[in-house]
Amino acid sequence: MGVAFSSCTVPAAGKPTFALSDDEIEVGVGIHGEPGRRRAKFGSADAIADELLTAIVEDLKPAADSRLLVLVNGLGGTPLSELYLLYDSVRRWLDGRGLGIARSQVGALTTSLEMAGASITLCTLDDEMIRHWDSPVHTAGMRWGGCEGLFCGKRDG
Question: Does the active-site annotation cover 32?
């Protein structure tokens, strides 16, 4: 579930999809720049995390002993420092409800052009999913584990 602090400009349209005042946010935005489910006054990272996580957890209904994957995704125009601020709010919210984070990632993972905002994704993990998540990844957007040297091959010279 996402929240926008600004709209994006879809190239074919040439203008922002929607307009927000400086003190407004769009709650429940779509990744393609679609308007959300409602407008709200701009709030703290804790308030944003509370609203988004309440809706997500109500739908997901994770068991108390669940191991969660948490993704805090920037929508394209959000500084990494603000995403980590939101992640800290998410972590504290989940901790306060006895829900454990097994894996997490923070960054511009799936953007909506230049839209300022963020989305939060939760997924319950089992052992097999954790094993796959921890596997080496070497793509244009994600890289971790197992590969050393240029292009995952040994460097010459």
Answer: yes
pLDDT (tens place) for every residue of the chain, 157 residues total: 999 998 888 888 888 888 888 899 999 988 777 778 899 999 999 999 999 999 999 999 999 889 999 999 999 999 999 999 999 999 999 999 999 999 999 999 988 888 899 999 999 999 999 999 999 988 887 788 865 554 544 444 4
CATH of region 2-142, choose from 3.40.630.20, 3.30.1180.20, 3.40.50.300, 1.20.1250.20: 3.30.1180.20
d(CA 56, CA 140): 29
Which two tokens mark 145?
A: 């584990």
DSSP structural state of residue 70? E
Of the residues 13, 32, 126, 132, only one is catalytic, namely 32
Q: What whole-number distance in Å separates Cα of residue 6 and Cα of residue 9?
A: 10
The residue extents of the domains of the chain are 2-142
Q: In what order do the strands lie in the sheet with 24-27?
A: 38-41, 24-27, 2-4, 117-125, 67-74, 100-107
